[in-house]
Amino acid sequence: MENAERLSKVKYFLYLSILFIIMILSVLISIFIGSVDISFQQIFTGLFHPSDSVVSQIIWDIRLPRILLAIAVGGGLSVTGAVFQAILLNPLAEPYILGISSGGTFGAILSFLIGLSFFSTQIFAFAGALLVVALVFILGRRFGELDPNVLLLTGVMIGAFFSAAILLMITMLNESLRTAIFWLVGNLSLADRNSVYYILPVSVIISIFLSANGYKYNVLSMGSETAKHLGINVNRFKNVVYILSSLLIGAVVSVSGIVGFVGLLVPHATRLIFGVDNRIVVPASFFIGAAYLTFADTAARTVIAPAEIPVGAVTAIIGAPIFIYLLRKRFQVMN
Question: Which of 18, 177, 190, 259 has the most CB atoms around it within 10 Å of its CB?
Answer without folding.
Answer: 259
